[in-house]
Amino acid sequence: MDTSVEDFDRIATLNFRGVFLAMQAEIPAILETGAGAIVNVSSVAGLVGVPGLSMYAATKWGVIGLTKCVALEYASQGIRINAIAPGLTETEMLVGTTKEQREYLLSITPMKRVADPIEIARSVVYLLADATYATGIVLPADGAFSVP
Question: Which of 25, 51, 81, 84 has the lowest tally of Cβ within 10 angstroms?
Answer without folding.
Answer: 51
